[in-house]
Amino acid sequence: MPIACLTDARRDEALGELAGWALCREGHGIERELRFADFNAAFGFMTRVALHAEKHDHHPEWFNVYNRVCIVLTTHEAGGLSERDVEMARFIDAIA
Ligand code: HBI
């Protein structure tokens, strides 16, 4: 089942709900940088996201150095942003 790309209107609506996220990749992705108390806290966060990603078959593109985690969400199969990215961003915001 192909994954639909968000319409521009839905993308803008979703971004309005996702404080801290910004468009990237020429509008095909969203990104956020998170900072934690230390590396352990950052890695614990990444572990929770990883389990969620596996459960939902939707995985972040991310970079971690010490307490900093930089995340990009995009949907390769849709060639841009999909509802899966919105759902993953909401989950990340809820546990960050
Ligand atoms: N994760 N972010 C993201 N985007 C995808 O398109 C994607 C994924 N995880 C697994 C997945 N697609 C599979 O359905 C295959 O397309 C790799």
Name the hetero compounds present.
7,8-dihydrobiopterin
Question: What general form does the structure show?
Answer: globular
> What's the CATH H-level superfamily name?
Transcriptional coactivator/pterin dehydratase
Total separate domains: 1
Structural class call reads alpha+beta
Order of the strands making up the biggest sheet: 1-2-4-3
| DSSP strand count | 4
Major beta sheet summary: 4 strands, antiparallel
CATH topology: Gyrase A, domain 2
- Low-pLDDT runs: none
Helix content: 40-55%
CATH class reads Alpha Beta
Rg measurement, Å = 13 Å
Order of helices and strands: HEEHEEH
> What is the mean pLDDT?
97
Strand content: 15-25%
CATH architecture: 2-Layer Sandwich
Question: What's the N-to-C terminus distance?
Answer: 31 Å
Number of helices: 3
Ordered list of secondary-structure elements with their pairings:
Elements: H1 8-17, E1 22-24, E2 29-35, H2 39-56, E3 61-65, E4 68-73, H3 83-95
Antiparallel strand pairs: 1-2, 2-4, 3-4
Helix pairs in contact: 2-3
The chain binds 7,8-dihydrobiopterin.
7,8-dihydrobiopterin binds next to loops.
Task: Kindly describe this structure.
The chain starts with 7 loop residues before the first helix and ends with a helix. A 4-stranded antiparallel beta sheet has the order 1-2-4-3, with helices on one face. It has 96 residues and is of the alpha+beta class. The radius of gyration is 13 Å and the shape is globular. 43% of the residues lie in helices and 22% in strands. It has helices spanning 8-17, 39-56, 83-95; strands spanning 22-24, 29-35, 61-65, 68-73. Helix 2 (39-56) runs antiparallel to helix 3 (83-95). The protein has a single domain (8-94), classed as Transcriptional coactivator/pterin dehydratase (Gyrase A, domain 2), CATH 3.30.1360.20. The protein has 3 helices and 4 strands, in the order H-E-E-H-E-E-H. The model has no long low-confidence stretch (mean pLDDT 97). The chain binds 7,8-dihydrobiopterin. 7,8-dihydrobiopterin binds next to loops. One of its GO terms (biological process) is tetrahydrobiopterin biosynthetic process. Its EC number is 4.2.1.96. It is an enzyme of class 4 (lyase). InterPro entries: PCD_sf, Pterin_deHydtase. One of its GO terms (molecular function) is 4-alpha-hydroxytetrahydrobiopterin dehydratase activity.
